[in-house]
Amino acid sequence: MFKDFYAQHGEYVVVSAEQASRFAKGVAGDYNPIHNPGARRFCVPGDLLFTLILVKFGLSRQMEFRFTNMVSADTPLLFSEAENGELHVSDESGKCYLQVVRDGETTHDSAAIEAFARCYVAFSGKNFPHYLKPLMEKHGVMFNPKRPLVIYDSMGFSLERLDGFTPGLALTRSSLDVQGKRADALLEFSIESKGVAIGVGSKKLVVSGLCHYDAAEMAAIVDEFYRLKAAYEAA
């Protein structure tokens, strides 16, 4: 399950730039250039770290994820559980990249974990242009087109049950809180199984380097997104 996207070296997990990029594009549908091998500010997708937490520790009914730093390619990562039950993803020096608080029943059923991970990551990968573009346009702001920076801050969810579901996620509400040159985007979603609501969740993103919304600039960025998508799918 997801073994093509990381390597286990003793107690450490290592993700190469190529593995991270394949996950971003092939699983999340995320064509952000920051996940391209060779990118100046390359980082491993937060959704891959999210997925690996589920793979290693299971899926709990309530989980809160907080991303504290960006992970570079080939960084040895230790996935650990603290005495208080918190889960951490840290490097060899102790620098923490992800903190997870969980509660309630936990399942280690691989089918349930993979189904939930894939449906959440597919939803999460639609940050741009699907969710963020309309929000930015509504508020008359956008990220710097020359240095677009959208940071995955946190996410959480609560599930009513863990067994026998085929989950699907749908956006229920979105908002953008503009604070000078940055903004917090909140994406709220429902979790359903066969048309029945089984949970709720939300995701927070931080958009930095804001400037006035430029329709032509934004159209060019969106066009480039779909060009990258088509090129990847053709390959």
From TrEMBL:
It holds the Pfam family DUF3581. This is DUF3581 domain-containing protein. It comes from Halomonas citrativorans.
